[in-house]
Amino acid sequence: MKPQASFKASTWKSWNGLKEYSYSVFHAPTSSAELQTIVAQSDSLRVVGTGRSSADICGGCAELLSLHLMPDFYRYDPVSRTVHVGAGMMLSELIQRMERDGRSFGALPDIDCITVGGAVSTGTHGTGRGAQSLSDYLVSITIILADGTRQVIDKSSPMIHAMQVSIGLLGIIEQVEFATVDLFTLALKEFPIDDRQWLSTWREHYETNDFLRLLWLPHTGFGYAIIGNKFTGEAPFTEKKAPEWHRYRRDVSSFLYSHSHNLPFLTALANQILKRLFFSSRTRKTGTLYGSTVTKSRGSTLELAEWTIPFDAFNDCFKDMKKGLSRLDNHAYAHIPMDIRFMDAGQAWLGNNNGNRTVTVGCVSRTPAHADSYRAFGLVESVFLAHGGRPHWAKRFKACRAQLQKLYPAFDDFVALRRSLDPACKFLNKYLAGIFG
Ligand SMILES: Cc1cc2nc3c(=O)[nH]c(=O)nc-3n(C[C@H](O)[C@H](O)[C@H](O)COP(=O)(O)OP(=O)(O)OC[C@H]3O[C@@H](n4cnc5c(N)ncnc54)[C@H](O)[C@@H]3O)c2cc1C
Fold first, then answer.
1. pLDDT computed for residue 2 by the predictor
2. In what order do the strands lie in the sheet with 150-154?
3. Residue pair 349/167 in contact by the 8 Å Cβ criterion
4. Residue nearest atom 18 of ligand 1, based on CA coordinates
5. Is there an atom of ligand 1 within 6 Å of 109 CB?
6. How confident is the model at residue 299 (pLDDT cuts 50, 70, 90)?
7. 20-64: per-residue pLDDT in tens?
8. How confident is residue 235, by pLDDT bands cut at 50, 70 and 90?
9. What is the CA(204)–ligand 1 centre distance, in A?
10. pTM score, two decimals?
């Protein structure tokens, strides 16, 4: 069968413009059969979602494929309380459909303009007590393997834990089935909290609240806590909105950091200004998990790194990171905020919460073009690696295969499975070949 929608050779660019590759064919299949034919016939193929990953995991193959023209597939099964969805659907669309059916995920990432396939493939996660990644909520997965065969893998197969986070290396995910929970409302409180205080209380907050997220404000001595609990409406809860000007936070950050680039020590001053303007007030709000905690629009692009560490190792790791970022001789100043989130242990072989309750720490460069000279990335990576931390697969890191291999008990099993399912290496680009080839 001839694929119906293939575009001529051109160039693919990631969302923030830092990755750029030419390709010879761009496929956009419109049916399952067509997708199978493309996969079977191609020698070098990667799927792209919205290209929002900072890691080099999308392009770099001769042929690219997008699922955006596949049939719009969504079904809620009220008996199993699971949703079945096409992997090309945007997460925003999926969540809204689930809410109409009275369903929610147990946790959500702080982004909705990504594809379901991209989120699942990279272990995209949320935060809170018992929170996990969307991959951890998988009940079954329908995948097109390298030889073009279509397989449904469910929890009865040990392969499900390899498939959960597979970075497009084991096949093309066509559909997934997720476990869901009843739709709930959260009552959230947001407030500044100094470093000493949150470092000594975060575990207690994690145990006693349904939702916990901390926006750490490097070079200020403060964080900004977001704590929430399920809200039934029985007890009174008075809302308190953030000041109007808070909606300019990202614009002001981008402006200040574009100027601090040449004189990195000014980052510390920029952070003090941003803290005063945007992270000093106490607010209270209610809403669904999606409505109250997920950012819906992002005006500017970013370059992101994220590192993860077991609960027990976090405080020491954080102290070393803070010490490193405070040194005056290394120019490793970090932008606001560094997002600190909390996940329960999972079983995905490449999940960064595999086997451990895990704290995740984000590191962001507000100006993607300056990312290569943004020294905080290197500093944070070296501290986390020294403490046994794992990187987020979708985000920026430099650790090599030998380092990563030590961090995941099933790393070699994943590589062996990848080889057996894709012996001709059609799903590997150069970056991924360096790690999993
Ligand atoms: C502003 C911003 C905020 C973010 N917030 C969070 C967050 O809160 N939590 C978090 O964990 N992450 C977060 N991320 C990371 C983000 O969730 C991942 O980068 C995600 O993969 C992006 O989805 P995408 O559709 O753009 O995927 P892409 O970047 O296009 O692809 C990611 C990978 O998935 C593969 N892939 C995509 N679809 C399929 C498929 N159908 N079958 C097989 N492989 C596939 C691709 O080949 C690629 O390897 C954030 C990123 C940004 C830019």
1. 44
2. 74-77, 82-86, 172-179, 138-144, 150-154
3. no
4. 53
5. yes
6. confident
7. 999 999 999 999 999 999 999 999 999 999 999 999 999 999 999
8. confident
9. 31
10. 0.96
- For tokens 């007030």, what's the residue? 281
317, 362, 325: which is closest to 216 by C-alpha?
362
Tell me whether residue 306 is exposed, middle or buried, using C-beta atoms within 10 angstroms of its C-beta: 0 to 12, 13 to 18, 19 or more: buried
Q: Is 207 helix (H, G, I), strand (E, B) or coil?
A: helix
Q: What spacing in Å lies between the alpha carbon of 302 and ligand 1's midpoint?
A: 14
pLDDT digits (tens, 9 = 90+) for 369-409: 999 999 999 999 999 999 999 999 999 999 999 999 999 99
Residue nearest atom 45 of ligand 1, based on CA coordinates: 168
- Indicate the burial class of 231 (C-beta count within 10 angstroms; 0-12, 13-18, 19 or more): middle
What is the distance between the alpha carbons of residues 292 and 241, in angstroms, rounded to a whole number? 12
DSSP string, 79-127: TTTEEEEETTSBHHHHHHHHHHTTEE-S---S--SSBHHHHHHHT-B--
DSSP state of 133: B
- Cα angle for residues 395, 400, 404 (degrees, 5° grid): 80
Which residues are paired to 188 by β-bridges?
228, 285
Ligand 1 atom closest to 49 (CA): 30
Based on its alpha-carbon atoms, the radius of gyration of the chain, rounded to whole angstroms, reads: 21
Q: Which of 56, 8, 57 is nearest to 28 (CA)?
A: 8
**Coil, helix or strand for 294?**
coil
Q: What is d(CA 265, CA 332) in angstroms, rounded to the nearest whole number?
A: 9
DSSP letter for each residue of 145-173: -TTS-EEEEETTSTTHHHHSS-TTSS-EE
Pocket test for ligand 1, best of 27, 52, 364 (most atoms within 8 A of CB): 52
Q: DSSP state, 242?
A: P
Task: State which ligand 1 atom lies nearest to the alpha carbon of 133.
Answer: 11
Instruction: Please compute, for residue 364, the number of CA atoms within 13 A of its CA located in the half-sphere on the CB side.
Output: 22
Other Cβ atoms within 10 Å of 337 Cβ, number? 23
8 A C-beta contact, residue 130 and residue 163: no
